[in-house]
Design goal:
globular
């Protein structure tokens, strides 16, 4: 029997954030029938979709916010999400990650503290870059320090490449192909993996040894290359510099991954070979993916023999309960 399921990469748009996206991205979302409506609803429709996929608790977060929204939009969007959960009819089945104005590290730290302390949010889900800028510089230490002080995770989520980044994905094919390659077809996943490695190289995890980072989509390509990254980080001309803890230890202690939107057992077989089960959490990527499809995958995992019953429960909900300090209702 499938255990309770907690999902962590499940998306939404408040009016404030949706209006800040601009016409281009609004049209992109509205081009998929029903998608924008699903993203902007927290209530009966979302709860019914959760029921269809056996999801006991969903952590709701704003989807990608290209260009980084301003502080006022983030504050209004987070307040709107908190109200939507409270008025959903089943608020105990919903939790929230904050959206942050990531082009400004200090304001991001302030909004993270406000949403966790005043609204009861369980962390933040943020775009992987702000107009092409990753968050490895010491400018962002104020954000990492606040996350550590609050003891909440930061979920690094893929976002659309900046104009400069997009150029690398264009080629001798139609422009929509290049757009896909730069986004969900390839590019934005690898960019999250690169960002994690940059945080390591910049000694962020040495300065903040209790920092908790979540990455989705079966680890954003990192598990497949992990052993080579370990090797390269210590070879030739000092490798990737001096670190108090090697990359392998940082992976074990600071990084959590979710299964969102990757419906095959092949990636999880790789992950289980180099990643602690305690660091793996189920997720869906709703509404870009369906809860039903996620449940089908989880049932395949159950019958595969890859995990014991105890380990299946860890991936399904226990690891998320421990990390987020939430609890699912038990039947």
């Amino acid at each position: 029997m499938t255990p309770p399921l907690i999902t962590l990469e499940e998306h939404y748009y408040s009016n404030a954030i949706f209006e800040s996206l601009g016409n281009k991205f609004q049209r992109t979302l509205q081009a998929v029938p029903g998608l924008a409506d699903q993203l902007r609803e927290v209530g009966d429709g979302r709860l019914a979709a959760m029921n269809r996929g056996h999801v006991s608790l969903q952590v709701v977060s704003h989807a990608f916010t290209p260009g980084s929204p301003n502080t006022e939009s983030c504050r209004a969007g987070n307040d709107e999400l908190a109200r939507a959960i409270a008025e959903s009819g089943q608020p105990a089945r919903l939790a929230a990650f904050a959206v942050l104005p990531c082009s400004d590290a200090a304001k991001s730290a302030h909004e993270l503290e406000r949403t966790v302390s005043s609204l009861g949010f369980v962390g933040a889900l943020i775009d992987n870059h702000a107009n092409g800028k990753h968050f490895d510089s010491m400018e962002y230490d104020v954000l990492w320090a606040k996350a550590c002080a609050l003891d909440v995770p930061i979920y690094l989520h893929p976002t659309w490449p900046s104009a400069r980044m997009s150029e690398a994905f264009m080629g001798a094919y139609a422009e929509p192909v290049g757009i896909s390659l730069g986004a969900a077809g390839w590019g934005w996943h690898g960019d999250v993996g690169l960002h994690v490695l940059k945080l390591f190289c910049a000694n962020v995890f040495d300065r903040f040894p209790t920092l908790k980072i979540i990455i989705g989509h079966m680890g954003e390509m990192l598990p497949f290359m992990l052993e080579r990254c370990y090797d390269m980080s210590t070879r030739w001309a000092g490798g990737w510099g001096h670190h108090e803890r090697p990359l392998r230890q940082v992976w074990d202690e600071n990084i959590w991954i979710t299964t969102s939107g990757a419906w095959s057992l092949s990636p999880i077989k790789c992950i289980l070979d180099n990643t602690k089960v305690e660091r793996i959490m189920y997720s869906v990527d709703y509404p870009f993916e369906s809860n039903e499809k996620g449940q089908e995958w989880f049932k395949q995992l159950e019958t595969s023999g890859l995990l014991t019953c105890e380990q299946l429960e860890m991936v399904a909900y226990r690891n998320a309960e421990r990390l987020l300090k939430v609890q699912v209702g038990r039947d």
